[in-house]
Recover the amino acids of this structure.
């Protein structure tokens, strides 16, 4: 009897056509159906946990596309053509723990996109066209443990954007055109902190600069980025990482400032022709020039001081020696018997002096 009732209830469960719903209503599978718009999601069973929409042709979603779907824990939108998702799209999905946007056409993300996803544990953004991760985007994702940004067009990331991810354990960053210059320095520090906490990061292979091509940024020593601090000083501090400005790319070579010879070489070669890089001129060469001037000035001052001290010491020694010689000579002349009295001879010499005076 109860079996029949249960069967009756199940068959009565709503399921948005043309999707397939599991018998307990927890999994709603709309994958691979060629959908270019969402099925009627208000028909979703109240107990549904997973909504699977992969391998469709979805390209646009409205702001309220997933409104009232707070029971969902998993949403799979992989292998679609989504290119521009509205901010607040997932804000009602407070129970969502797993979101997959793998293999879409995302090139930019609204910084409010992941609002309301405080319980999200896994976020897959791999294989899109993302070139940046905006500040604030990840701020609410404090439960996130797994994040993939692999296979995008990222060349740098800002540390501050990732700092809210206090529970992150696993980060995938592979297959991006990373530029291992000053813009990546702070993020490298953050990666090291993540590794220290026991987290995992896959290989971050540098694409630029040329001499670091193919190197894993995890193995590039932090010291290679020390020159960045000087660059920041030169640029008036905080604005050291002007992502997006042409000067932030390509032109700064971590190796070059390691010694002044290479430095001068690259300066002179850029001066020698091809008006290639104004940036090298405006941002890079002044550093080396000022550095050289500073070195010369400091060296000059130090040498000067040392020289003066040596001259003074020599002069003092000479004067002292000649005075002493003269004094001894006179002493011997006047008091031949006092001879070479040592030690307590001094007292007598003093007396002699006073008696002479
Ligand atoms: C969400 O639910 C509320 C009330 O339960 C309803 O008024 C509203 O129309 C629903 N929104 C959507 C987009 O289904
Ligand atoms: C969200 O999850 C909690 C804990 O699993 C559950 O008690 C609650 O009913 C869920 N909310 C909805 C709307 O299903
Ligand atoms: C990405 O999605 C497109 C379109 O859905 C599909 O043809 C392609 O095979 C997918 N690529 C991968 C690597 O999944």
């Amino acid at each position: 009897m109860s079996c029949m009732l249960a069967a009756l209830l199940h068959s009565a469960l709503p399921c948005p056509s043309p999707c397939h719903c599991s018998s307990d209503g927890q999994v709603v599978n709309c994958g691979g159906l060629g959908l270019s718009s969402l099925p009627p999601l208000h028909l979703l069973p109240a107990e549904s946990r997973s909504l699977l929409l992969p391998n469709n042709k979805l390209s646009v979603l409205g702001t309220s596309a997933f409104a009232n779907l707070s029971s969902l824990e998993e949403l799979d939108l992989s292998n679609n053509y989504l290119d521009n998702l509205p901010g607040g799209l997932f804000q009602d999905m407070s129970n969502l723990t797993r979101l997959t946007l793998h293999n879409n056409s995302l090139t930019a993300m609204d910084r409010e996109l992941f609002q309301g996803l405080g319980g999200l544990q896994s976020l897959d953004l791999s294989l899109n066209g993302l070139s940046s991760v905006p500040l604030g985007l990840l701020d609410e994702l404090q439960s996130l443990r797994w994040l993939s940004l692999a296979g995008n067009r990222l060349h740098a990331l800002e540390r501050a954007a990732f700092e809210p991810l206090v529970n992150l354990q696993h980060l995938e960053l592979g297959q991006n055109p990373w530029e291992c210059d000053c813009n990546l320095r702070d993020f490298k520090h953050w990666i090291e902190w993540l590794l220290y906490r026991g987290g995992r990061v896959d290989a971050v292979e540098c694409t630029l600069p040329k001499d670091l091509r193919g190197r894993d940024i995890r193995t590039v020593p932090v010291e290679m980025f020390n020159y960045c601090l000087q660059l920041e000083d030169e640029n008036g501090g905080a604005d050291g990482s002007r992502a997006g400005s042409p000067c932030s790319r390509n032109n700064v070579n971590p190796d070059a400032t390691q010694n002044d010879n290479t430095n001068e070489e690259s300066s002179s070669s850029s001066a020698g022709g091809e008006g290639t890089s104004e940036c090298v001129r405006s941002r890079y060469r002044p550093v080396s020039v000022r550095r050289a001037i500073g070195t010369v000035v400091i060296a000059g001052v130090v040498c000067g001081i040392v020289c003066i001290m040596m001259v003074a010491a020599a002069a003092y020694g000479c004067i002292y020696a000649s005075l002493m010689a003269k004094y001894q000579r006179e002493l011997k002349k006047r008091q031949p018997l006092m001879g070479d009295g040592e030690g307590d001879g001094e007292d007598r010499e003093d007396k002699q002096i006073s008696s002479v005076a």
Observations:
- The domain at 58-235 is CATH 3.80.10.10 (Leucine-rich repeat, LRR (right-handed beta-alpha superhelix)).
